Amino acid sequence: MKPRSLSLEADVGFQIAPMIDVVFVILVFFMALAAQIRIEHSLQTTLPGVAVAGSPTPLVDEQLIQIDATGEVRLNDEALDATDSVHLPGLRATMLRLKESADAAKSTVVVTVIGHPDSAYGRTIEVLNVLAAAGIRQVTFTTEEES
User: Fold this and answer.
1) 6 is a domain residue
2) For the purposes of burial, counting CB atoms within 10 Å of the CB of 73, is it exposed (0-12), middle (13-18) or buried (19 or more)?
3) Mean pLDDT of the residues in the chain
4) What pLDDT, on a 0 to 100 scale, did the predictor assign at position 49?
């Protein structure tokens, strides 16, 4: 007898069993993953808004007001009002803005008035009137040393 040769060309057809196994594994994976996903509205988040300080800010910003011998007023080396200005509108507007921003940040405003020895006493009083109108209460004084 003649030995029979095996033919490897047999048509097996479409195998459904491995496809069902793969689908079940994917289904189990997504079911396990879905149990860990949080719904967005259940997260306790708030959107950012206007920041208001809860306690006073410990940083103190000192402002320097200089009165020179001619009566010119400078705030932090920036000329604001001329010698003939009695009501000091530039200084007044700047001090009001500074006080409002300090109140919003709950910080204190400290002003040091540096007067020239030859400046008029009335000019210092005008500067103090502006500071009082702005509501600034922490004021210190010093004088320029003559060179």
Assistant:
1) no
2) buried
3) 80
4) 67
